[in-house]
Amino acid sequence: MSTFGRNIKFLRKREKCTQDDVAFALEMKRSTLSGYENGVAQPSVNVLISFSMYFNVAIDTLVKVELSDLSESQLFQIERGFDVFIKGSNLRVLAATLDQYNEENIELVSEKAKAGYRSGFADPDYIKVLPTFQLPFLSKQKKYRSFQISGDSMLPIPDGSYVTGEYVVDWNTIRDGQAYIILTIDDGLVFKVVENKIDSEQKFTLYSLNSIYDPYDISVRDVKEIWKFVNYISSEMPEANQEKQDLVDTVKQLRKEVQAIQTKLNL
To answer: Distance between CA 252 and CA 45 in Å, rounded?
Structure first.
């Protein structure tokens, strides 16, 4: 049986369709469909296009990727029109790991592992040796990964925190003012607030939460992966915001002075 045959059979069963259902929809004989599924018959270009449109899956994916080996989140992305497996003319499968219950793990990229991730992010052998964990309150239909950050550019999120991100398939959906973990060619992993300038200038402008750091631009050609920030884990308590506390103290003092004046006027 060919990859194509296994894939259309897998997708048909996943959608709980019979061979008669699919054959009727594609205006072909059930025996012809059975031939494709069993690898006896070879599909023409027009047939490939028909199956691609019916299942909403790219032709390259149908003929090259073993869909049954993919995680639920990867299949979910494909079925909703975001074919994460094809980028330009290159086939790219997002490497992921599953736990003993066949649920997708959250891989953890520590500070020590960040240098290796720069080159191994697409290597399944590298990804499978990363530590993993689960966060039960996150969606099982999305792919998450956690990265340890360093430095003070994103304070009040402290140095050494673990930030968890949701894999971004379509970079055009990146929203201005939100935080993302970005894998770049030159700088490796960076955690920044993003301004999306893809449409106008084919670049992103990256901002730090710590205002002492200046924003800078990065071309989309220098970006390998993007993960949308969803939460962070830290063993440190955030420091009190002294400016806000000073304002609170000032307001309290003004209230006391106003109360004192009112008391004198009422005498």
So the answer is: 76
Query: Which sign, positive or negative, has the C-alpha torsion 3, 7, 13, 17?
Result: negative
Looking at residue 257, what is its pLDDT? 78
**Degrees to nearest 5, angle at CA 204 with 201 and 207:** 140
Walk me through the domains of the chain, giving residue ranges and CATH numbers. Answer: 3-68 (1.10.260.40), 106-233 (2.10.109.10)
Round to whole Å and give the CA distance between 163 and 228: 10
Query: For residues 239 and 114, what is the distance between their CA atoms, to the nearest angstrom?
Result: 27
Tokens found for residue 80: 């909703």
Select from 200, 249, 254, 206 the least CA-distant residue to 226: 206
Residues contacting 125, CB < 8 A, separation 6+: none
Structure confidence by residue, pLDDT tens digits, 208-236 = 999 899 999 998 888 889 999 999 999 88
Distance, in Å, from the CA atom of 98 to the CA atom of 116, rounded to the nearest integer, reads 21
Q: Are 43 and 4 in contact (CB under 8 A)?
A: yes
Closest CA to 41 of 57, 23, 16, 53: 23
